[in-house]
Amino acid sequence: MRTVGVEEELLLVGPETGEPQARSAAVLARASHEDAGQEVFEKELHEQMLEFATHPQSEMSALGAEIVRCRKEAARHAGEIGCAVAALATSPLPVSPSVGAGRRYRWMAEEYGIATHEQLVCGCHVHVSVESDEEGVAVVDRVRPWLAVLAALSANSPFWQGKDTSYNSYRSRVWQRWPSAGPTEVFGSAAQYDRRVADMLATGTILDDGMVYFDARLSRRYPTVEIRVADVCLHASTAVLVATLARGLVETAAREWRAGREPVDHSVSLLRLADWRAARSGLTGELLHPATMRPAPAAEVVRDLVDHTAEALADCGDLYRAREGCAELLRRGNGAQVQRGLLRRTESLRDVVVECVRHTQE
Question: Whole-model pTM?
């Protein structure tokens, strides 16, 4: 059974004001002192952010328990210095982000200017194990049409600088400002994938292969495919659902490759449109169906994603979890819908953030 790991980026906020706070160094110092050698928490581009990574897990119940534990530990460390953590992909309240220290971040700030300073966005990256780079690239080629559906499920960033953006995932629109971000063409082989990365590095436009921000890529550090399209999810249960479906997609794609089935060759132009539609509509309207690239109701597309991966999900014991999780998410709404509902009830973005601090640890 393929293992799955999750990286989540959390927003540091004032527990009463809801305003982002540039305190990541202090939180990391406390975490490092207490959890020496575990290296669960890491710094991120901005000092208002905190990242953690789970261990690889085979069982989704274990993965969910670890996400909950890491969120609670992050909240405890932050609370000790007067902060709170919120699983929000963008700050609902106005913020002036602070770029972190270090050569890499200084290079990014100088090279990309305002695009770097505005990247205070929090994502969720899912790592799924693969047997080889060849299998990994075959998976990357075959999951491309379905990634926008994961983005719609996870969408959790409707507000930006104190305003409603009209998007479900504005984080994804900000993320697209990086020159290497977004969907990719079909590579066909690991050798071709490596040549493409080498060509990108040779342009001098990106610093290293860690800045190859494909929607799905081979991990630099682990024997995994890393799926990078999701907003950080407001609820841990949604993060587990996204990870469950991601593993189903990877296993389904690997089986198709071994069976000699060619990947669907949708153009990057169409995939970008699918990404945009998922960011705009989330689960509240239509998505572009991965098979046809034509509009279809979001609920129908989500059901077809589960059907597409049903055999792989069943073999992992995840099919019931996936069906029930998707049905519940469609009933409750994704994080963007929950945030907008909180704003209608409270009429205060500050209160939205304070409530989301609570949701983060549920």
Answer: 0.97
